[in-house]
Amino acid sequence: MSKILVTGGTGYIGSHTVVELHNSGYTPVIVDNLSNSNIQILNQIEKIIGVRPEFHQFDLCDEAQTKTFVQENPDITGIIHFAASKAVGESVEKPLKYYHNNFFSLINLLNAYQGKPINFVFSSSCTVYGEPDTLPVTESAPVKKAASPYGNTKQIAEEILEEVAAAYGNYNTIALRYFNPVGAHASALIGELPLGVPQNLLPFITQTAIGKREKLTVFGGDYDTPDGSCIRDYIHVVDLAKAHVAAIRLLEKGNPNGKYDVFNVGTGNGYSVLEAIAAFEKASGQKLNYVVGPRRDGDIIRVWGDVTKSTEQLGWKAELGIDEMMASAWAWERYLQENPIG
Ligand code: UD1
To answer: Rounded to whole angstroms, how far apart are CA atoms 189 and 45?
Structure first.
C-alpha cells in the first residue's frame, strides 16, 4: 500500500481526502500543527474508516522537524499538501503571516525531498483566474493579479512548483485549482469546522439555520447576473477529495503532460448565492433568515470551471449535485449541535 503524506489532514478538505485515500487502498499519514483544526477529527475519521490514521503534530515551517520527519518516513511515495492559511480577509491584514506559513512549509517540504522521487499534489484555487474573461474558465486562461496575499500565495506556489519540477528530475507535481468546496461526508462525522464567525457562504448558511447566527447577509444583489447575486461553482468536498486520489493515481502511472500540470476541480455549473440559498431551503426543509446587503470588497462576480481537462486527463468527474451538497452540510451542522467538537 503506498503511503501518502497528507499535510493539513485534520482540516476540512484534508480529512475527507484521508478517508478517500483509505477507501482507495492507500495508507494516509497526517501531519498537522492543529492551528486551524481539531484533534478530535482523528476520532471522527477513525469512526468512518475503522482505523486510526498515523498522525504527527508539528509545523512544516520548522525546517529541522520537516527534514527529520522525511528521513524517518522513507516509504512515503506521495504528498498532498493542504497545510496553509486560507482566510482571504486575514491575509490582507497579516500578509507576512500568509507569506511565512504558506511558503516556508512548501519550500521546507520540497527541500526535504530533494533527490528523492516524489509525487506532489498541491491545493490551489480558482482564485488564480480572478474575474475570468470567458466562462467556463479553462486551465489555459490567464492568471490575473491576485486580489489578496492569500491568492498571491496560491499563484506563486504554482510558479514555484512549475520551476522546481522543471529544474530537478524527482518531483512529479499537480496543482488542483478548487472552485468552492462545500458539503460534508455522508456519515455526517466530518465536515467544515470554522473557527469563529464563518467567512464562507455554506457554514454561514447552516449556522444561521441552526440558530448560531441571526441572519445571513447576501453580499450584493445588484450585480450583472440573472438574479443580481454572485455566481460560483460549488463542489462537494467528497468529490473534491476523490480528485486528489485521481491526481495521485495519475502521477503514479506517469502524467503524459509532464512533471507539472494543473486541473480545474469543479462541477462546471454555476449557482448564484440566491440559488444556493433556495437549494439549501429545499434540501433542509428550513426557511433561511437572510437579507440582501451591500457588496463585499474583492468579490468575483461570476466564475465556474471548464472541467473537460479533468474529465479527460485526470479521469475524474464530480458526481454529487447541489442537493447533496446542501443536505450533507445541514446533516453535519445538526450532528455538531448534538456532538460539539472543539
Ligand atoms: C473565497 C475566496 C477565495 C478562496 C475561497 C476559499 C474571496 C474574494 N475569495 O471564495 O479566494 O479560495 O474563499 O474558501 O474571499 N457570500 C454571501 N454572504 C456571506 C458569505 C458569502 O453572500 O456571508 C457570497 C459571496 O459574496 C460569494 C459566495 O457567497 O458570492 C461564496 O463566498 P465564499 O464562500 O466566501 O467563497 P468565495 O468568495 O467564492
So the answer is: 8
| Nearest-atom index, ligand 1, CA of 303 | 39
For 264, residues 6+ apart whose C-beta sits below 8 A from its C-beta are: 126, 137, 138, 139, 177, 179, 305, 306, 307, 309, 310
Question: Whole-model pTM?
Answer: 0.98
Closest residue to atom 26 of ligand 1, CA basis: 219
SS (HEC) of 302-326? ECCECCHHHHHHHCCCCCCCHHHHH
d(CA 317, CA 96) in angstroms, rounded, equals 36
Cα–ligand 1 centroid distance for 245 (angstroms): 26
Separation of alpha carbons 63 and 43, rounded Å: 29
Distance between alpha carbon 176 and the CA centroid of its chain, in Å? 9
Q: Which residues does residue 181 pair with via DSSP β-bridges, in sequence order?
A: 235
Residue 1 has pLDDT above 80, yes or no: no
Q: What is the pLDDT of residues 194-206, one digit of tens each?
A: 989 999 999 999 9
> What pLDDT was estimated at residue 85?
97
Predicted confidence (pLDDT) per residue in 270-287, tens digit = 999 999 999 999 999 999
Catalytic residues: 150
User: How many Å apart are CA 6 and CA 78, to the nearest integer?
Assistant: 9
The confidence score (pLDDT) of residue 342 equals: 82
Q: What is the DSSP letter of 263?
A: E
Nearest to 182 by CA among 60, 280, 106, 302: 280
What would the mean pLDDT of 105-115 be, rounded to a whole number?
98
Q: How many CB atoms lie within 10 A of CB 187?
A: 15
Domains in the chain, CATH or no CATH each: 3-183+236-266 (3.40.50.720)
Q: Per DSSP, what are the bridge partners of residue 290?
A: 216
State if residue 296 touches ligand 1 by the CB under 6 angstroms criterion.
yes
> Residue 147 is placed in which grid cell?
486580489
Whether 208 has a pLDDT exceeding 90, the answer reads yes
Cα–Cα separations (whole angstroms), residue 272 to 210, 284, 324:
22, 18, 17
Q: Which residues share a beta bridge with 7?
A: 31, 81
Q: Give the separation between CA 231 and CA 304, rounded to whole angstroms.
A: 8
